Amino acid sequence: MTDGGILASEAVRVWEPIDLVVSGHVIHGFGRGKRQLGCPTANLDLEHIDEALKATIGTRMGVYAGFATFLSGVHKGETHPAVLSIGTNPTFANDRPSIEAHLMHHFTKDFYGAELRVALRWLVRVDRRFASFDELKTAISDDIEIFGRMLSERDRQ
Q1: Does residue 53 contact residue 114 with C-beta atoms inside 8 Å?
Q2: What is the pLDDT of residues 34-73, one digit of tens each?
Q3: What is residue 3's predicted lDDT score, i.e. its pLDDT?
Q4: Does 6 reside within a domain?
Q5: How many beta carbons lie within 10 A of that of residue 149, not counting itself?
Q6: Strand pairing partners for 24?
Q7: From CA 157, how far away is CA 106, in angstroms rounded?
Q8: Residue 52, in any domain of the structure
Q9: Tally of domains in the chain
Q10: Rg (CA), the chain
Q11: Rounded CA separation 154/77 (Å)
Q12: Which of 43, 49, 99, 103 is 20 to 30 A from 31, alpha carbon to alpha carbon?
């Protein structure tokens, strides 16, 4: 934090309005979100994402913020704010892209296999390689905190 409550990393974020929707079934990912980064994610199956959307996302890899709605499973009908990573996770040097959504809600049960629709509303920042895992963890934490503050401000208006 800097003086005035602004996060030091806030200046590198773009918060560009966007209107994209991705849907897919929740699958097992690399297992890094919760274990290594302290940020559990719902990984979406890329097999069934349409080619036009893949092409659009392929040119816009980065971190997004929006809202995730369960279309099936035990949480069917629930909608939660979400921060997503769409890309190859350059810090981990993945060779294939992934879509990993952190839903801003505490879940007591897993929801593998559920279908999730995520409405992307903002491009937060572009995909980039971080110098360390600690730097990446800080950036993820900041992304979530900033989006939470944005939602709180919106709710107060």
Answers
A1: no
A2: 666 778 889 998 776 666 666 666 667 889 999 999 999 9
A3: 41
A4: no
A5: 13
A6: 116
A7: 25
A8: yes
A9: 1
A10: 15
A11: 22
A12: 49
Active site residues: 100
Specify the CATH number for the domain of residue 28: 2.40.30.30
CB contact burial 17-38 (16+ within 10 A = b; e otherwise): ebebebbbbbeebeebbeeebe
The Cα 13–Cα 73 span in angstroms is 34
- HEC assignment per residue over 61-75: CEEEEEEEEECCCCC
Task: Give which of 122, 125, 126 is closest to 151, Cα–Cα.
Answer: 122
Distance CA 18, CA 123 (A): 7
Instruction: Report the SS3 class of residue 11.
Output: helix
In a domain, 5, yes or no: no
First vs last C-alpha separation in the chain: 25
Residue 82 sits at φ, ψ, to 5 deg, of -145, 145
* pLDDT tens digits for range 77-110: 999 999 998 888 778 877 777 889 999 999 998 8
Q: The pTM is what? A: 0.83
Q: Which domain holds residue 57?
A: 13-156
In a domain, 99, yes or no: yes
